[in-house]
Amino acid sequence: MYISEWKFGDDICSSLTLYIEIKCTFDRADYLQVLENRKNRNVIAKLRLSSHKLFVETGRHRQIPRQDRTCMLCNIDDVEDEYHFILICPFYNTIRNTHIPRYFRTRPSMFKFVQLFNETSNQVLVKL
Fold first, then answer.
1. Region 35-40: what's the mean pLDDT?
2. DSSP characters for the chain?
3. What do you get for the CA distance between the two ends of the chain, in Å?
4. Is there a contact between 15 and 50 (Cβ–Cβ < 8 Å)?
5. Is 70 helix (H, G, I), strand (E, B) or coil?
6. What's the whole-model pTM score?
7. Which residue has the higher pLDDT, 47 or 64?
8. Are 52 and 27 in contact, with CB atoms under 8 Å apart?
9. What is the biggest distance separating any 2 CA atoms in the chain, rounded to whole angstroms?
């Protein structure tokens, strides 16, 4: 019963939008076993759970409508969420080109973004 509620109770909390996209099964996430370094695991966990300082979250705490939580580092006028931060924002192009594999950077999509977060390669996760 708990697993059923976990799977279908996804409309309960707006802060878990990314988590709902990334986590499709009720089991231990692979990155927890792949990443040996606690700091790396914590960083990935915070991104996955939207426990960070991106404007999509800080704006939510201040009751700013989601569409108004745009990135202040670029002029694309996108919401500064995890997807924008990791794959889109031109401000981070140099870092992205160094650390994110070309496959994910080329024609980025939500599908590739979810793949990136569900990656089982230690090397890719550490660079993320």
1. 92
2. -HHHHHHH-TTS-GGGHHHHHH--SSS--HHHHH--SHHHHHHHHHHHTT-S-SHHHHHHHTT--GGG-B-SSSSS--B-SHHIIIII-GGGHHHHHHHS-HHHHSS--HHHHHHHHT---HHHHHH-
3. 35
4. yes
5. strand
6. 0.81
7. 64
8. no
9. 47
